[in-house]
Amino acid sequence: MSGIFKEFRDFVLRGNVLDLAVAVVIGAAFTTVVNSLVANVLTPFIAAIIGQPSFGEINFDIGDATIEIGLFFEAVVNFLIVAAVIFFFVIKPVNLLLERRKRGEAPADLPTPEDIQLLREIRDLLKERP
Predict the structure, then answer these.
(1) Using one digit for the tens of pLDDT, what is the confidence trace for 104-123?
(2) Disulfide-capable partner of 58 in 42, 70, 105, 124 (CB 3.0 to 4.6 Å)?
(3) CA–CA distance from 67 to each of 50, 56, 62 (Å)?
(4) Which residue windows are transmembrane per the record (predicted)?
(5) How many CB atoms lie within 10 A of CB 58?
């Protein structure tokens, strides 16, 4: 049984699992911040412009059904904020990092410069001398 616990401990302490756990905790905290931003800052501001106290109260009735379009709009704004933050603070920096790494690598198909070819010929001729 101790082998299983050791294997489990090694699995949990592996870098990827710890990184994922930290990401989940930070993501949950970030969700709270974004929800607060949408509910307490953006929604009242936009709602004041359109004349409603909050988006949650924007709805319309179709027969006996009530379509709460305001709550949907809040969810869309929330999603757009999260998507923008992820794009600008995760995707763009990672793409820039990958581009910088690619620039650091020399292309494999470059022809050998003439001076290098001449130096190699001289080296080979010197090796042949007694």
Answers:
(1) 765 566 788 888 888 888 89
(2) 70
(3) 18, 11, 7
(4) 20-50, 70-91
(5) 19
Q: Which three-class secondary structure string do you get for the chain? A: CHHHHHHHHHHHHCHHHHHHHHHHHHHHHHHHHHHHHHHHHHHHHHHHHHCCCCHHHCCEEECCEEECHHHHHHHHHHHHHHHHHHHHHHHHHHHHHHHHHHHHCCCCCCCCCHHHHHHHHHHHHHHHCC
Residue 42 contacts by C-beta under 8 Å, 6 or more apart in sequence?
77
Q: What confidence tens digit (pLDDT) does each residue in 13-65 have?
A: 776 777 788 888 888 888 888 888 877 887 778 778 877 767 777 888 999 99
Closest CA to 56 of 40, 45, 68: 68
Q: Is the pTM of this model over 0.70?
A: no
CB atoms < 10 A from the CB of 38, how many? Answer: 22
Q: For the chain, what is the domain count?
A: 1
Which tokens in the block code for residue 80?
């757009």
